[in-house]
Amino acid sequence: MNDRGQNVGEAYPKKLFLTSLKRCEANPGFLASFYERFMKSSDEVARYFRFTNFEKQHKMLMKSLELSARATEGDREGLREIAMRAETHSRPYLNVRPPLYQLWLDSLIAAASEFDPEWDDETEQAWRRILGFIIKHMVSHYDG
Ligand code: HEM
Question: pTM (2 decimals)?
Fold first, then answer.
C-alpha cells in the first residue's frame, strides 16, 4: 500500500478513482456540470439528451461508474454492468457513435478536475486509466 491506500503494482488504480469520484459526488453540481459541458461539446451530443430526465440520469451514471470501475478487477457485477452499458449504447439501441466517447471523457475529466478539491496528476491518470478501460469495452461492442 502507498499513502493513498493504493496497492503498489495494482493493475488499475480503482481505489484512487473511486475516492476521487466520492469527493466529486459530495460537491453539489458535479454531474450537472459534466452534462452541461458534454452537451455543449457538440450539437450531436445535445440531441441525444433532448428528452432526458437529468435527475434520474445523474443517479444512473454515478451508480454505473462505481460498478464499472470494479470491472477493471474482473468483478462479476462490474463486468455485467459494462456488458449492459455496451449493449444499451450500441448501434441498434442508443447508437452512440465511437468518436463521441472522446468528448464524454474530456467533459467528465474537466468536471472532475473542478469538483475534486484534491485533484492532481496522479488522480487524473487514475480517471483516464479506469474510464479508458470502460470506453474501450463499449466501443468494441458498438456493432453488437
Ligand atoms: C463510458 C461512457 C458512458 C457510460 C458509462 C454511460 C452510462 C450511461 C448510463 C448508466 C445510462 C442510463 C442507462 C442506459 O440507458 O443505459 C446512460 C444513458 C444514456 N447515455 Fe450514456 N454512458 C456513456 C457514454 C455515453 C456517450 C458517449 C453518449 C453520447 C451521446 C451517451 C448517451 C446516452 C444517452 C442518450 C442515454 C439515454 C438518456 C435518456 O434516457 O434520455 N452515453 N448512459
Answer: 0.94
Question: How remote is the CA of residue 3 from the centroid of ligand 1, in Å?
Answer: 34
Residues near ligand 1 (Cβ within 6 A):
45, 48-49, 51-52, 57, 60-61, 64, 68, 85, 88-89, 94, 96, 100-101, 104, 134-135, 138
Q: Which atom of ligand 1 is nearest to the CA of 138?
A: 1
Instruction: State the distance from the centre of ligand 1 to the C-alpha of 127, rounded, in angstroms.
Output: 18
User: What CATH number does the domain containing 30 carry?
Assistant: 1.10.490.10
Task: Please state the domain count of the chain.
Answer: 1
Please check whether residue 71 lies inside any domain of the structure: yes
What is the rounded distance in angstroms from the CA atom of residue 18 to the CA atom of residue 127?
9
Give 76-123 as a 3 state SS string: HHHHHHHHHHHHHHCCCCCCCCCCHHHHHHHHHHHHHHHHCCCCCHHH
What tens-digit pLDDT sequence spans the chain (144 residues)? 555 555 555 689 999 999 999 999 999 999 999 999 999 999 999 999 999 999 999 999 999 999 999 999 999 999 999 999 999 999 999 999 999 999 999 999 999 999 999 999 999 999 999 999 999 999 999 998
6 in a domain, yes or no?
A: no
